[in-house]
Design brief:
Blueprint lengths: L1 H24 L13 H5 L1 H18 L8 H5 L1 H18 L11 H5 L6 H17 L4 H11 L10
Length: about 160
Amino acid sequence: MKRLFTVMVVAGALMFGSMSAFATSSMDKKDKGMKQKSLYKRLGEKKAIIAVVDAFVGIVAADNRINKFFADTAKDPKRLKAFKGKLVDQICEATGGPCKYKGLKMEPAHKGMNISDADFGALVEDLVAALDKFNVPAAEKNELLGALGPMKGDIVGK
């Protein structure tokens, strides 16, 4: 279960990490000289993150490329709720929100899972699909992916 959660969190992080780099560099003309809102605020805060995570988990559960990593967690409502909560906290924290991720570090959480680049890519695709469902702008998507992307090295091939 911890491994499955970690995979989901990492994939989400990677997707969201690349977004931060893009969004940080883009400002509306009227915002020049003013401090830009955090990605957390621009995404719609915790309520919006929860909605994206719920959609994301549903998309992953239907994705035959990677759902095997999450099958045990998906079968147990208690584990699934905990997994979603940790994923929300991780994204919330990575985007500048008030949450604190208290789950395992990515490398130990994914040890022995043998996650491939293709598996990781599929997870990122699923995260993008969830973000697209809620019409998250490209700048915010890229910034989020940029914030989460650096976790890939701690997940793939472990």
